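Hey, can you fold this one?
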Amino acid sequence: MTVHGTGRRGLIVPVLLLLLAERPDHGYELLQRLQAFGWAGCESASVYRLLRGMEKEGMLASSWRASETGPARRQYEITPQGAMELALWFLRLGELHETLHVFLERYAQLPAGAPGTEARPSKTGRRATRPS
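Sure. Predicted structure:
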């Protein structure tokens, strides 16, 4: 069972809350900002579904805003409830950060040749290759 990619997906809610705490925005612009945050492969339909769900839960509010270059766009903004949720994520992620820091430090201390270190990056930043 591999779960290496699942943790990152679970962080999209706090990232969207953070982006909207920085400034209200419409969906397309949020997608662009997500890409800059490291979510280059984010599907727009999933993000729009997530935004609507977050709005139903009271974390976001939206309204239609006229656009200078085209049709009106739905603009999202964080609500007080969303701001509280963002603050809780900040605490949770801070705790996780500490745990990850300990994990990474301990992994880095494993001696060369220990089980699981075959793919560890070398001092040049490249992963060691597995022997054939």
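Confidence is low (pLDDT under 50) at residues 126-132. Let me know if you want another pass with a different chain boundary.
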